Amino acid sequence: MAKIEFDELMSIGIDIGKDTFHLVGFDPDGQRVIRQQIKRLALVATFEKLPRCVVGMEACLSAHFVSRTLRKLGFEPRIIPAIYVKPFNKGQKNDYNDAEAIAEAALRPNLKVVSEKTQEQLDLQALHRVRSRLVSRRTATINQIRAFLIEQGITVRKGLRALKNSFETILEARKDEISPRMRSILIGLYGDWMWMDDRIDKVSKEIEEISRTEENCVNVMTVPGIGPMISTAMVAAIGEGEAFDRGRDFAAWVGLVPRQYSTGGRTVLGRISKRGSRYLRMLFVQAAKVIMMRPHRWPDFSFGEWLTRAAERMHRNKAAIALANKLARMAWSILRHKTAFDAPRDEVAVGI
Predict the structure, then answer these.
(1) What is the crossing angle of helices 228-238 and 119-151, to 10°?
(2) pTM of the predicted protein model
(3) What's the sign of the alpha-carbon dihedral 136, 141, 144, 149?
(4) CB 228 within 8 A of CB 217
């Protein structure tokens, strides 16, 4: 590609890859003046030679690192959700077309962008992702142990604790029925289970320690039902919540609002949208269900009367989702305004 001389740029779109980046840039007249592929290691050297402008990139792995790097160089980076870039794609899908679509999307005046995460947020997010993976693997391991036992004609009642308490007893009582090889396999799986239990406990304790020292987490944990897991996951995901204008916007991002299909002045609301953060949505729903299990304590909370009325007219699961929506909105408000919840909170609403 021949070198192009230009004095200023309007926007640059970066299609981020594992080893290479594809750049497409437009000047103030809307003419494409950059179409270039660079190595990841050449990012700083390349952008140091370019006029300062808006730089768009899709929200993906390393997007926050690239954004922080370019901001230090004086650029205005914008991390864009992939769903907002898709309408600007033209022609066949390739890296240059993707970068061009990103460059055009970055200039939209009402574009909702992803907040740039700090290194502390990324570290906290990594802890949650590691814990989530370990919990998933532990569940898979327990299910496999149960499946192998059923193949031997042995069933164990539901519950993690029931299997853990009876595992050694089963192996000893049924040693004549279980082959030596199967016994060895089961013992190995049980060892994996115990190792994952230990790892999950260590990661959970690290998350709890962070929640006690982080001011934003301490504030959010004053909301009933919200503990170290939700507070740290929320701070890791949205920082101080500046990306949202109001609590309902955050609840919509979490996916706790009804899916809307309205036309011709007729409003149609369906099931919850389930958009945004699946992990946070799961945690908020779990917190809501914990509170729903203790109706005798609802009057202690400022939303107790509302919850009582909601429980009377809604199915239990629907009421739990409505409560999760309310918890999310209250948590955002507390996080954004650095305040505390206005009602007493004690051990009855165990935080998640």
Answers:
(1) 130
(2) 0.86
(3) negative
(4) yes
Q: What does the pLDDT look like over 82-134, one tens digit per residue?
A: 999 999 998 888 999 999 999 999 999 888 889 999 999 999 999 999 999 99
Rounded-to-integer distance, Cα 168 and Cα 270, Å: 49
CB 252, CB 273: distance < 8 Å: yes
Characterize 204-240 residue by residue with b for buried, 16 or more Cβ atoms within 10 angstroms of its Cβ, and e for exposed.
Answer: beebeebbeebebbebbbbbbbbbbbbbbbbbbbbbe
CB contact at 8 A, 281 and 273: no
252 burial class (0-12, 13-18, 19+ CB within 10 angstroms)? buried
Span 35-84, pLDDT tens digits: 999 999 999 999 999 999 999 999 988 999 999 999 999 999 999 999 99
Q: Please, what is the Cα angle at 335 between 333 and 338, to 5 degrees? A: 95
List the strands of the sheet with 20-26, edge to edge: 32-39, 20-26, 11-16, 54-58, 76-80
- Ranges of beta strands (E only) in the chain are 11-16, 20-26, 32-39, 54-58, 76-80, 258-260, 269-272
Q: What tokens does 330 get?
A: 């209250």
Please say whether the beta carbons of 260 and 269 come within 8 A: yes
